[in-house]
Design brief:
The protein is α+β, with helices and mostly antiparallel strands. 61% of the residues lie in helices and 8% in strands. It has a five-stranded mixed beta sheet with strand order 5-6-4-9-10, with helices on both faces. Helix 5 packs antiparallel against helix 6, helix 11 packs antiparallel against helix 12 and helix 12 packs antiparallel against helix 14.
Length: 801
């Protein structure tokens, strides 16, 4: 999509729909019921209140909770709120494509839920795919709702309901555009397109819509033909060029039909030109790379001449091309990208010789920038190495895009440039950028929804190095192949990337025999060469897996050694070391590993999953991963489960047993060891220290069992720690190092007025308070005398300066 405003959002304009009854009272009641507060930086308007409610609803969706009835009622029955929400959804749809910091998958999930009319449809499968069955139920409900409102003849309500129906269809359209980027996600596009086509046909058959509404639905059908005709996979390994060209001519005709359904509307022309240009260039690219045809004269191919004529018939006159062969046709088609780029950026390419030069100097990248550059790099064979190098450096210098739509295209460009290095026969020794590419992947692929694209770059690097017979190059190639195979989510080596895999195996076989320096090169049958290459990589993989196992054991031993040398706990360091071991060395970025307290409640972000096993007492190891790569994760965890569980438990046991505990088990407060450590750091600094004796806790302990009194102690600790940082001392005592910006009398007053809910009543706390002022390294001795004095004072408070 080169212009989302024109292409997806044009039918969602609700500006002409005006609010009706005032629902301020209802919104205020909801804000109060859920204790929600408006952002203090904005005016307290009804729109800001709607926004606050929407943020709360989104939070519930992200936690996978059902909406309470009052919120469901708001979404289903408040006309004004629905009016606000359709505009909010429109904004979100726009940001998915236009804002490179948008978390793509999460935002689509939010939008679909906001469009669910308060109902729950289980839109995601357990492997992070959009459920065709759930989408079918969603569309069926919308069909019924649209027809019901039409029959009621309430024009205002019907128009808003119809806008929501169009929004659902356009969001599904947007999902398909984004899913088309990924090999695996692409497979459920046809199912979604079929649902869209069927629901439009059903709605048009059930009710007699006015012309503008029929045109709106037809425009969606036209866009389906325009956007997704080129989704058909054309196998060309076993059929002749004429059949291939005929199939592409058929697809070109379908695109033209889609543009005609859109009434040749100029606002769709840029996308139409982009699509037909890319379709024909894909045909030429495949004829060249798969069938090794460099050029065809139109006079020698009736089918290719038909493609040429259909192109000229369908485009504006300024983009018509006059040529007589495939090679010239391709070069002139590439000029269309320069037009599309200059048109979208309002840029005159007189200053910059071509779009790549312009792109390289950009600080902020748009969706059009990265799509057009991707297409130019994909289809052009005449970009020199120096410019390719500059482009890669420019891409690598930009931080990872949070928006997967942008990041995908960045990775695709990098992958294509590696392919160009191969075709230009650039030696890996002369290419200093390879290490930078690897560093970028290792830094940014952690728990990514784009792991398949990151790993595809490993496969391309494997191919790159496999052409060189040097042992070091062969070893690097095999290691990259090993990483890709380890992360392969759907056996793509046997499917989409089978040609690349076969070429790599052939190269291994060839390099192996060249290493013997035979005077005459032995010619093997294709199948024999493949088998030799496969035997070589299988042998390497067995060796590499053993190396990883040995390396992991050495890392574990070093980790234990470092733990023994530690003088105080450092949970952050331990988590980082375990992350390095598990994520980097065993899972190659597929997971994020973290030791967690089992009492901690951690919400798993939508689109991710968690595998957990207990390691000791209240602690567990959690492995977070993208649900989309569940198959790969399960394959790797099955192989490494026993190793991980045994060794992580042993590491954690060493950590707990070696280092003095800094946390009190009962109250979860930092304990006396932690306090002494802090006082040691403060040394001679003058501080104010509280030692609080809990008289009420002593009485509770005399009357109740140990578990009940411990729970009571925990409640006291929570209350005090909410007010000021506290430490658990020996016995029924709590310590406080007073913040130097606070007055000690404020804390005394707080402690004396503190009440705790216990045994169905509110219990006022009885405390003895010792306040000592002096050097940190002597304060505990001073506090001992202060507490003794406090116990015999009338008000149970003593200040010792």
């Amino acid at each position: 999509m080169l212009n989302i405003n024109n292409e997806l959002l044009e039918n969602l304009d609700a500006d002409k729909l005006l609010p009706i009854d005032n629902d301020t009272f209802e919104i205020s009641a909801l804000l109060e019921a859920y204790e929600l507060q408006n952002d203090s930086s904005i005016l307290n308007t009804i729109e800001s209140q709607y926004n606050t409610i929407t943020k709360f609803i989104v939070g519930l969706y992200l936690e996978n909770q059902n909406l309470p009835n009052d919120l469901k009622n708001l979404i289903q029955n408040s006309y004004n709120y629905k009016l606000f929400l359709i505009n909010d959804i429109k904004r979100r749809m726009k940001e998915i494509v236009l804002v490179n910091s948008t978390h793509l998958f999460k935002e689509i999930y939010i939008i679909l839920n906001l469009l669910s009319n308060g109902n729950k449809y289980d839109i995601l499968t357990d492997q992070n795919m959009f459920s065709i069955e759930a989408i079918k139920f969603l569309l069926n409900d919308y069909e019924d709702n649209v027809c019901e409102q039409f029959i009621k003849n309430d024009i205002q309500t019907f128009e808003l309901t119809f806008k929501y129906y169009l929004a659902v269809l356009e969001v599904l359209n947007e999902i398909c555009v984004i899913n088309a980027l990924d090999i695996q996600r692409r497979k459920n596009i046809n199912g979604i397109l079929e649902l869209i086509t069927n629901t439009i046909a059903n709605t048009k058959a059930k009710i007699k819509l006015v012309e503008k509404d029929v045109l709106a639905l037809n425009s969606i059908l036209g866009k389906l033909l325009l956007y997704f005709t080129n989704m058909s996979y054309i196998s060309i390994d076993i059929i002749n060029k004429d059949v291939v060209i005929q199939k592409y001519a058929f697809m070109l005709n379908k695109m033209y039909d889609g543009f005609n359904i859109l009434e040749n509307d100029e606002k769709y022309y840029a996308s139409f030109l982009d699509r037909v240009t890319s379709l024909i260039l894909t045909l030429i690219y495949k004829l060249k790379t798969k069938l090794h045809i460099d050029n065809i004269e139109f006079s020698d191919s009736k089918d290719l001449n038909e493609v040429y004529n259909l192109y000229n018939k369908s485009v504006n006159s300024i983009h018509a091309i006059d040529c007589s062969n495939m090679k010239d046709f391709r070069e002139k088609l590439l000029e269309n990208y320069k037009y599309l780029y200059s048109d979208s950026n309002n840029t005159d390419f007189t200053t910059y010789s071509d779009p790549i030069d312009f792109f390289i100097q950009l600080d902020v990248v748009s969706n059009v920038d990265i799509i057009i550059i991707h297409n130019i790099v994909l289809y052009s064979d005449y970009i020199e190495k120096s410019k390719l190098d500059l482009l890669i450096r420019s891409l690598l210098s930009k931080n990872k895009f949070d928006n997967d739509y942008y990041e995908f295209y960045k990775l695709k460009i990098i992958d294509r440039i590696i392919q160009r290095y191969i075709s230009l026969k650039i030696s890996t020794k002369d290419n200093t950028l390879i290490e930078e590419i690897i560093r970028y992947i290792e830094k940014n692929n952690l728990v990514s929804h784009l792991m398949s694209m990151y790993s595809k770059i490993y496969l391309s690097l494997s191919l790159y190095y496999s052409y060189e017979k040097a042992l070091s190059s062969q070893k690097k190639s095999k290691n990259f192949y090993f990483i890709y195979q380890r992360l392969d989510n759907n056996n793509f080596l046997e499917k989409e990337f089978n040609t690349i895999s076969k070429q790599i195996l052939h190269n291994y076989s060839s390099a192996f025999f060249k290493s013997f320096n035979f005077k005459t090169e032995k010619n093997f049958l294709n199948i024999e060469s493949l088998q030799i290459g496969k035997d070589l990589i299988d042998k390497y993989i067995r060796k590499r897996e053993l190396e990883i196992e040995i390396d992991s054991f050495l890392n574990i031993e070093n980790l234990r050694k470092n733990i023994l040398e530690m003088s105080e706990p450092n949970d952050t360091w331990l988590n980082a070391e375990i992350e390095k071991l598990i994520s980097n060395k065993i899972f190659f970025g597929l997971v994020k590993a973290k030791i967690e307290n089992i009492d901690d409640f951690n919400i798993i972000e939508v689109g991710y999953d968690k595998y957990t096993f207990d390691i000791q007492d209240d602690y567990s190891l959690s492995l977070y991963y993208s649900s989309y790569y569940k198959t790969t994760f399960e394959k790797l965890i099955e192989k490494n489960k026993n190793f991980l569980e045994l060794n992580i438990r042993n590491i954690f046991k060493s950590y707990i047993n070696t280092i003095p505990s800094f946390t009190d088990i009962t109250t979860k407060l930092p304990n006396i060891n932690k306090l002494k450590n802090e006082l040691k750091k403060l040394d001679k600094k003058k501080i104010t220290f509280f030692e609080v004796y809990l008289n009420t806790l002593v009485k509770v302990s005399e009357s109740y069992n140990i578990n009940t009194s411990n729970e009571f102690f925990k409640e006291i600790a929570i209350k005090i720690n909410e007010e000021t940082d506290a430490y658990r001392l020996f016995g029924p005592k709590i310590g406080i190092i007073l913040d130097e910006n606070r007055d000690y009398r404020e804390i005394v007053s707080f402690l004396q007025s503190l009440k705790i809910q216990f045994d169905n009543e509110e219990l006022k706390l009885n405390v003895t308070i010792a306040v000592s002022i002096g050097e940190a390294n002597k304060i505990l001795d001073k506090s001992f005398y202060a507490l003794s004095s406090a116990k015999i004072s009338n008000d149970r408070v003593y200040i010792f300066e």
